[in-house]
């Protein structure tokens, strides 16, 4: 081989012979041929390396491209699949870490900060309804007499969601029951008309809806959806804040501690326990928010459960109990009262079975069917005399008034499911029946419990308010 610089490599190329600088020797003869062979081998190896590198690079690029394309295809498919799913409105719940923090002092805000954060989520609700009241002049003459007057009641609500066309508000069922018209007043004092989305009378919960098209952009910028916490994390002694439309004066704030959790109350229809607090919950607070010190809703206040005989004992429905009910109600079809020419009927005569009758006679609470009209929708659906109607299209029925109120939102010809309990050898068997509603006779108002609608325009003889009821 050639000798370069200060190293003289032997023909085997193993190690240097000496360190003396030398001039390169001129290759010739056999050595020249060997050098040519080695040059060819080295060139072949180099060419192979280049080709191998090119192929390997191509394979790597191809695999990378294929992997990326597959991932992209999977992502596109996932997006496509998700876009085809039905959109469901859900509550804006707190993360696990922030919810757990509610049981500790870490991350807590002061009351002022909580109020500033939560107030845009709280609304005042006004319920206007027409009720029959005793005629004052009839007290001085023979026979009884009633007249219809418009009654206004006040309560509270919490903004819990929004869909494509509606703002959704949670409240108590007793705040909105029997409403002819509902209005919601937001944090900026602007009011909009609302409609009932769904109710659960057993748990005293309801969701109402306001059309987004009825809410100004300015109002939308000043309100927000409440953050839902975890009431299961509450501890006795933990500080809480209550916000609501107390006494109908507008939003007010009280504070206190959790006095008890899972408190059972005899006067409630709910089988679930309640949060007891010494924060003042007054008439008008019903449907308002009970908040932890992270500003999260952990209870729905209910003045209905309060007593005027004691102080420092307010109650709230735990939000962990209410959340699944709210998610069901907020995804139901929004209904408005139908016109008189569309009014529907079942074709029965019935009687309310309240809790006292149910307990005394062992009859399920609801509407006892005393008589079935021949050829009516009830007869065609298989409803029999002696059975008890307990649900109408997923709405719990506890009285004739509940049943009549439901029918106000359904037109003749619509098909709905009824849950009835049928007597069977001393017990009652639950059965679901599908019924297509009859057209109601609106010419008269029935007084014996027969299903029908009152004559249109029979509301409010003098148009005056009887007064304001706080709930």
TrEMBL record:
Residues 74-108, 442-455 have a biased composition (Low complexity). Residues 335-424 form the PDZ domain. Pfam families: PDZ_6 (PF17820), Trypsin_2 (PF13365). Coiled coil: none annotated. PROSITE patterns: PDZ (PS50106). Residues 1-34, 74-109, 441-471 are annotated as: Disordered. PANTHER family: PEPTIDASE S12, PROTEASE DO-LIKE 8, CHLOROPLASTIC. This is Trypsin-like serine protease. It comes from Blautia faecicola.
């Amino acid at each position: 081989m050639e000798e370069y610089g200060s190293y003289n490599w032997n023909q085997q190329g193993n190690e240097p012979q000496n360190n003396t600088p030398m001039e390169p020797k001129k290759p010739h003869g056999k050595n020249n041929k060997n050098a040519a062979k080695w040059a060819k081998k080295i060139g072949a190896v180099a060419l192979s390396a280049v080709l191998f590198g090119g192929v390997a690079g191509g394979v790597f690029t191809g695999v990378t491209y294929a992997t990326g394309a597959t991932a992209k295809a999977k992502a596109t498919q996932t997006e496509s699949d998700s876009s085809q799913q039905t959109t469901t409105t859900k509550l804006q719940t707190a993360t696990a870490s922030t919810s757990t923090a509610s049981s500790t002092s870490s991350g807590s805000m002061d009351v002022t900060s909580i109020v500033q954060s939560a107030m845009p989520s709280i609304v005042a609700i006004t319920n206007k309804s027409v009720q029959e009241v005793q005629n004052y002049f009839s007290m001085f003459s023979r026979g009884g007499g009633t007249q219809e007057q418009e009654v206004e009641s006040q309560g509270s609500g919490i903004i819990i969601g929004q869909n494509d066309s509606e703002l959704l508000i949670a409240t108590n069922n007793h705040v909105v029951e029997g409403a002819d018209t509902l209005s919601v007043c937001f944090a900026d004092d602007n009011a909009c008309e609302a409609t009932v989305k769904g109710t659960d009378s057993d748990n005293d919960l309801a969701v109402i809806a306001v059309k987004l098209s009825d809410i100004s952009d300015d109002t939308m910028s000043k309100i927000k959806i409440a953050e839902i916490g975890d009431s299961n994390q509450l501890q006795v002694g933990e500080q809480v804040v209550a916000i609501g439309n107390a006494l109908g004066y507008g939003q007010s704030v009280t504070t206190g501690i959790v006095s008890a959790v899972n408190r059972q109350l005899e006067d409630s229809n709910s089988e679930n326990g309640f949060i007891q607090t010494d924060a003042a919950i007054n008439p008008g607070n019903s449907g308002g928010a009970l908040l932890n010190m992270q500003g999260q809703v952990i209870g729905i206040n209910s003045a209905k459960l309060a007593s005027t005989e004691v102080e420092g004992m307010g109650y709230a429905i735990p939000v962990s109990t209410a959340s699944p009910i709210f998610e069901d109600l907020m995804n139901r079809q929004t209904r408005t009262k139908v016109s008189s020419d569309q009014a529907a009927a079942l074709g029965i005569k019935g009687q309310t079975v309240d809790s006292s009758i149910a307990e005394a006679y062992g009859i399920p609470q609801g509407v006892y069917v005393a008589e079935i009209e021949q050829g009516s929708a009830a007869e065609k659906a298989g409803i029999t005399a002696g059975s008890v109607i307990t649900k109408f299209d997923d709405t719990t029925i506890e009285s004739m008034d509940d049943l009549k109120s439901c029918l106000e939102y359904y037109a003749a010809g619509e098909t709905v499911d009824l849950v009835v309990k049928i007597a069977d050898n001393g017990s009652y068997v639950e059965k679901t029946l599908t019924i297509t509603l009859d057209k109601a006779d609106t010419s008269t108002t029935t007084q014996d419990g027969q299903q029908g609608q009152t004559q249109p325009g029979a509301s409010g003889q003098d148009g005056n308010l009887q007064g304001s009821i706080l709930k």
